[in-house]
Write a structure and sequence with these properties.
- The complex is a heterodimer of chains A (114) and B (113).
- Chain A has 114 residues and is mainly β.
- Chain A has strands at 5-7, 10-13, 19-24, 31-38, 42-50, 53-57, 64-68, 74-78, 87-94, 104-105, 109-113.
- Chain A has no helices and eleven strands.
- In chain A, the strands form two sheets. In chain A, strands 2, 4, 5, 6, 9, 10 and 11 form a seven-stranded mixed sheet that branches.
- In chain A, a hairpin with a 3-residue loop joins strand 4 (31-38) and strand 5 (42-50).
- Chain A is globular and about 35 Å long.
- Chain B has strands at residues 4-7, 10-14, 19-25, 30-38, 45-50, 56-59, 62-67, 72-77, 86-94, 102-103, 107-112.
- Chain B is mainly β and 113 residues long.
- Chain B has no helices and eleven strands.
- Classes of the chains: A mainly beta (114), B mainly beta (113).
- Chains A and B meet through strand 4, strand 5, strand 9 and strand 10 of A and strand 4, strand 5 and strand 10 of B.
């Protein structure tokens, strides 16, 4: 158990809908990363937050957004969902951005868009 | 642009054998190279990592070999066990305030009993 929690574990929704994925980092970790894992694209970095502020953006679609709250949990919002958004979404956390390299991954949320 | 290339895509090894997975990178700014192990239905778990100032790092049965001039690194699993059957990802990251990981495409390892 990495200490990173993600909810829900599974999510099934229809095209055009909006969903919110939640992540709680390990105790003491300030940095949260979101990754998408799909069969065709592999594991891809989406976005990073550090202590409430956006730190880096990767291959994140404009339909997707994220935020990190004062209690350090993070939410990834996916809107206008398409079939191609079906994937595993992982959250990872680390102690600090740019200092400690190690990232610990949560169990993921499996999103199915029908 | 795929910045970290991983091979092979799949690997079958007999119990007790050596599993070798290779990765090559393009971005010379990468300065930290972790390997992750992922079991079905689970998130990736950090296995072992190396920085480019060393050529080899060993932790138990797992060894990373690093060749900075060739921009290649590899994972060796000695005495492979059926419990090692999983997908392995190499990754790389750069210095800076953000530490996002760039992953290889993954290797599905099967260790036969």
């Amino acid at each position: 158990d990495s200490g990173v929690t993600q909810t829900p574990k599974h999510l099934i929704t229809a095209t055009g809908q909006r969903v919110t994925l939640r992540c709680s980092p390990r105790s003491g970790d300030l940095s949260v990363y979101w990754y998408q894992q799909s069969l065709d694209q592999g594991l891809q970095f989406l976005i990073q937050y550090y202590n409430g502020e956006e730190r880096a953006k990767g291959n994140i679609l404009e339909r997707f957004s994220a935020q990190q709250f004062p209690d350090l949990h993070s939410e990834l919002n996916l809107s206008s969902l398409e079939l191609g958004d079906s994937a595993l979404y992982f959250c990872a956390s680390s102690v600090a951005s740019g200092v400690n390299y190690e990232q610990y991954f949560g169990p993921g949320t499996r999103l199915t868009v029908t | 642009q795929q910045q970290v290339k991983q091979s092979p895509q799949s690997l079958i090894v007999q119990k007790g054998g050596i599993s070798i997975i290779n990765c090559a990178y393009e971005n010379t700014a990468f300065d930290y190279f972790p390997w992750y192990q992922q079991f079905p239905g689970k998130g990736p778990a950090l296995l072992i990592a190396i920085r480019p100032d060393v050529s080899e790092k060993k932790e138990g049965r797992f060894t990373i070999s690093f060749n900075k001039s060739a921009k290649q690194f590899s994972l060796h699993i000695m005495d492979s066990q059926p419990g090692d059957s999983a997908t392995y990802f190499c990754a790389a990251t750069t210095s800076g305030s953000a530490r996002q990981l760039t992953f290889g495409s993954g290797t599905q390892l099967t260790v036969l009993p």
